Amino acid sequence: MTAMEVLIGVFILVIGLAGFFRAIVSQTVLNEHSRNFTLAMNDSRRVLERIRQQNTSDACVTPSALPPQLPVAYLSWDAWLADLNGGGGKSIRPDSNELIAVTCQKADNSGFCGAGDDPIHLTIAVCWRHRSRTIGDCTWNGNLLIENNPGASGDPNVVNSPAQLQTVMSCRR
User: What is the rounded distance in angstroms from the CA atom of residue 144 to the CA atom of residue 128?
Assistant: First the structure.
Protein backbone atom coordinates (compact mmCIF):
# COMPACT_ATOMS: atom_id res chain seq x y z
CA MET A 1 0.00 0.00 0.00
CA THR A 2 1.28 3.41 -0.87
CA ALA A 3 1.08 6.50 1.28
CA MET A 4 -1.46 8.00 -1.12
CA GLU A 5 -3.79 4.99 -0.73
CA VAL A 6 -3.53 5.23 3.06
CA LEU A 7 -4.34 8.96 2.97
CA ILE A 8 -7.36 8.37 0.74
CA GLY A 9 -8.56 5.58 3.06
CA VAL A 10 -8.13 7.78 6.15
CA PHE A 11 -9.94 10.64 4.40
CA ILE A 12 -12.90 8.40 3.54
CA LEU A 13 -12.95 7.05 7.11
CA VAL A 14 -12.96 10.59 8.56
CA ILE A 15 -15.86 11.60 6.31
CA GLY A 16 -17.80 8.51 7.37
CA LEU A 17 -17.18 9.15 11.07
CA ALA A 18 -18.15 12.82 10.73
CA GLY A 19 -21.44 11.80 9.11
CA PHE A 20 -22.06 9.23 11.83
CA PHE A 21 -21.48 11.77 14.63
CA ARG A 22 -23.68 14.31 12.85
CA ALA A 23 -26.48 11.74 12.73
CA ILE A 24 -26.12 11.08 16.47
CA VAL A 25 -26.29 14.80 17.31
CA SER A 26 -29.30 15.31 15.01
CA GLN A 27 -31.16 12.39 16.59
CA THR A 28 -30.43 13.73 20.08
CA VAL A 29 -31.86 17.16 19.19
CA LEU A 30 -34.88 15.56 17.51
CA ASN A 31 -35.48 13.38 20.57
CA GLU A 32 -35.31 16.41 22.89
CA HIS A 33 -37.72 18.41 20.70
CA SER A 34 -40.12 15.46 20.52
CA ARG A 35 -40.02 15.10 24.31
CA ASN A 36 -40.81 18.80 24.83
CA PHE A 37 -43.63 18.67 22.27
CA THR A 38 -45.16 15.65 24.02
CA LEU A 39 -44.92 17.37 27.42
CA ALA A 40 -46.48 20.55 26.00
CA MET A 41 -49.40 18.60 24.50
CA ASN A 42 -49.88 16.82 27.82
CA ASP A 43 -50.08 20.16 29.65
CA SER A 44 -52.57 21.58 27.14
CA ARG A 45 -54.73 18.45 27.61
CA ARG A 46 -54.61 18.92 31.40
CA VAL A 47 -55.84 22.51 31.07
CA LEU A 48 -58.55 21.55 28.56
CA GLU A 49 -59.77 18.75 30.83
CA ARG A 50 -59.94 21.12 33.83
CA ILE A 51 -61.96 23.64 31.77
CA ARG A 52 -64.32 20.83 30.78
CA GLN A 53 -64.69 19.73 34.42
CA GLN A 54 -65.51 23.20 35.71
CA ASN A 55 -68.20 23.62 33.04
CA THR A 56 -69.89 20.35 34.00
CA SER A 57 -72.30 20.94 36.86
CA ASP A 58 -75.86 21.99 37.59
CA ALA A 59 -74.53 25.39 38.71
CA CYS A 60 -73.10 26.16 35.26
CA VAL A 61 -75.27 28.76 33.48
CA THR A 62 -72.81 29.94 30.81
CA PRO A 63 -69.44 28.37 30.04
CA SER A 64 -66.32 30.02 31.40
CA ALA A 65 -62.73 29.95 30.20
CA LEU A 66 -61.49 31.57 33.41
CA PRO A 67 -59.07 29.66 35.64
CA PRO A 68 -60.44 28.15 38.87
CA GLN A 69 -60.63 30.30 41.98
CA LEU A 70 -60.01 27.45 44.44
CA PRO A 71 -57.89 26.59 46.37
CA VAL A 72 -56.61 30.10 45.54
CA ALA A 73 -57.66 32.73 42.99
CA TYR A 74 -55.51 31.94 39.96
CA LEU A 75 -54.79 34.87 37.66
CA SER A 76 -54.11 32.68 34.61
CA TRP A 77 -54.15 29.09 33.47
CA ASP A 78 -50.38 29.27 33.41
CA ALA A 79 -50.39 30.07 37.15
CA TRP A 80 -52.90 27.26 37.80
CA LEU A 81 -50.79 24.69 35.96
CA ALA A 82 -47.56 25.81 37.68
CA ASP A 83 -49.08 25.50 41.18
CA LEU A 84 -48.63 22.08 42.79
CA ASN A 85 -52.04 22.52 44.48
CA GLY A 86 -53.65 23.49 41.17
CA GLY A 87 -52.58 21.67 38.03
CA GLY A 88 -49.73 19.84 39.71
CA GLY A 89 -46.81 21.66 38.13
CA LYS A 90 -45.65 22.24 34.59
CA SER A 91 -43.98 19.43 32.69
CA ILE A 92 -41.22 21.42 30.95
CA ARG A 93 -38.54 22.50 33.42
CA PRO A 94 -37.69 25.07 34.59
CA ASP A 95 -41.21 26.55 34.81
CA SER A 96 -40.19 29.78 33.08
CA ASN A 97 -39.49 27.79 29.89
CA GLU A 98 -43.19 27.00 29.35
CA LEU A 99 -46.27 29.21 28.98
CA ILE A 100 -49.92 28.17 28.69
CA ALA A 101 -52.03 30.65 26.70
CA VAL A 102 -55.81 30.19 26.70
CA THR A 103 -57.77 32.37 24.31
CA CYS A 104 -61.55 32.47 24.16
CA GLN A 105 -63.62 33.61 21.19
CA LYS A 106 -67.30 33.85 20.47
CA ALA A 107 -68.62 30.73 18.73
CA ASP A 108 -68.69 32.56 15.39
CA ASN A 109 -65.07 33.77 15.87
CA SER A 110 -66.22 37.40 15.68
CA GLY A 111 -64.17 38.49 18.69
CA PHE A 112 -63.17 37.65 22.23
CA CYS A 113 -65.86 35.97 24.30
CA GLY A 114 -67.59 37.77 27.12
CA ALA A 115 -69.96 36.97 29.94
CA GLY A 116 -73.05 35.23 28.65
CA ASP A 117 -71.58 33.86 25.42
CA ASP A 118 -72.69 30.27 24.92
CA PRO A 119 -71.03 28.31 23.39
CA ILE A 120 -67.47 29.58 23.44
CA HIS A 121 -64.56 28.62 21.18
CA LEU A 122 -61.41 27.85 23.21
CA THR A 123 -57.81 27.61 22.07
CA ILE A 124 -55.19 26.26 24.48
CA ALA A 125 -51.69 26.91 23.14
CA VAL A 126 -48.38 26.06 24.78
CA CYS A 127 -45.20 28.02 24.08
CA TRP A 128 -41.83 26.74 25.26
CA ARG A 129 -38.10 27.31 24.98
CA HIS A 130 -35.91 24.81 23.16
CA ARG A 131 -32.18 25.48 22.86
CA SER A 132 -32.54 29.28 23.04
CA ARG A 133 -35.44 29.27 20.57
CA THR A 134 -39.04 30.10 21.39
CA ILE A 135 -41.55 27.61 20.01
CA GLY A 136 -45.02 29.12 19.57
CA ASP A 137 -46.51 32.59 19.37
CA CYS A 138 -44.72 33.99 22.44
CA THR A 139 -41.72 36.18 23.20
CA TRP A 140 -38.76 35.49 25.51
CA ASN A 141 -37.85 38.58 27.56
CA GLY A 142 -34.68 37.10 29.04
CA ASN A 143 -36.35 35.70 32.17
CA LEU A 144 -39.67 34.25 31.11
CA LEU A 145 -42.03 33.74 28.20
CA ILE A 146 -44.61 36.43 27.46
CA GLU A 147 -47.76 35.87 25.44
CA ASN A 148 -47.74 37.91 22.22
CA ASN A 149 -50.79 39.81 21.15
CA PRO A 150 -53.11 37.21 19.65
CA GLY A 151 -52.99 37.17 15.90
CA ALA A 152 -49.32 37.88 15.40
CA SER A 153 -49.26 34.91 13.05
CA GLY A 154 -52.81 34.53 11.76
CA ASP A 155 -56.20 34.67 13.52
CA PRO A 156 -56.51 38.00 15.37
CA ASN A 157 -58.05 36.27 18.40
CA VAL A 158 -55.77 33.25 18.84
CA VAL A 159 -52.26 32.60 20.17
CA ASN A 160 -50.77 29.93 17.89
CA SER A 161 -48.43 27.08 18.74
CA PRO A 162 -47.47 23.65 17.38
CA ALA A 163 -48.88 22.28 20.67
CA GLN A 164 -52.39 23.69 20.42
CA LEU A 165 -55.86 22.32 21.12
CA GLN A 166 -59.16 23.89 20.09
CA THR A 167 -62.72 23.07 21.10
CA VAL A 168 -66.18 24.54 21.38
CA MET A 169 -67.38 24.56 24.99
CA SER A 170 -70.84 24.84 26.47
CA CYS A 171 -72.22 24.00 29.91
CA ARG A 172 -72.72 20.27 30.35
CA ARG A 173 -75.34 19.23 32.86
Answer: 10
* Cα–Cα nearest to 161, from 142, 138, 131, 139: 138
pLDDT, one tens digit per residue, over 112-152 is 887 788 888 889 999 999 989 999 988 999 998 988 766 55
Phi, psi of 136 (to 5 degrees): 110, 180
Beta strand 138-140 with 133-135 is: unpaired
Beta strands (DSSP E) in the chain are 98-106, 120-130, 133-135, 138-140, 145-147, 163-169
What is the reported pTM?
Answer: 0.81
Of residues 106 and 167, more confidence is placed in: 167
List Cα–Cα distances, 136 to 8, 149, 154, in angstroms: 47, 12, 12
List, in sequence order, every residue forming a beta bridge with 166; answer none if it has no partner.
123
- Give the tens place of pLDDT for each residue, 53-103: 888 888 788 888 888 887 788 989 999 999 988 888 999 988 899 999 998
Rounded distance, CA 9 to CA 13, Å?
6
Specify the DSSP class assigned to residue 58. T
For the beta carbon of residue 21, count every other beta carbon within 10 angstroms: 10
Residues in the chain: 173
